[in-house]
Amino acid sequence: MTDRPVKKIFLDPEKEPLLHAAHSPSLLATLEANQVEVAYQCREGFCGACRAKLCRGKIAYNQEPLAFVRDGEILLCCSKPVTDVIIKLV
User: Fold this and answer.
1) Which GO molecular function entries does the Swiss-Prot or TrEMBL record give (predicted)?
2) What letters, b where the CB count within 10 A reaches 16 and e where it falls short, cover 26-35?
3) How much is the pTM?
4) Residue 6, Cα to own-chain centre: how many angstroms?
5) Other C-beta atoms within 10 Å of 11: how many?
């Protein structure tokens, strides 16, 4: 059995990071599992309600979102971190 790397999610660089396990379906699921309140609706990248600012790091989308996403923003419901990330909830 191979250990899969765990990525760190920083919401505030001053606080302890949250850990995103490889089996977690999305950043949104990881935040919810850690009792972080996040606005969302569709969970599929259609509505854009879960948008956040990606301050540092890289993500990959499970599927390309249909909602408009500005440069520097991500949708939490359909993305996973590729590296450790710093995000700001909007």
Assistant:
1) 2 iron, 2 sulfur cluster binding
2) bbbbbbeeee
3) 0.91
4) 13
5) 19
17, 8 contact by CB (below 8 A): yes
The answer to whether domain 7-89 has CATH 3.10.20.30 is yes
At 71-86, the pLDDT tens digits run 999 999 999 999 999 9
Domain boundaries, the chain: 7-89
| Inter-residue contact 9 to 31 (CB < 8 Å) | yes
With tokens 């909830």, the residue in question is: 89
pLDDT given at position 68: 93
Contacts of 15 (CB under 8 A, 6+ apart): none
Amino acid symbol at 13:
P
Is the pLDDT at 4 greater than 70? The verdict is no
Helix (H/G/I), strand (E/B), else coil: 54: strand
pLDDT in tens, 20-40: 998 999 999 999 999 999 999
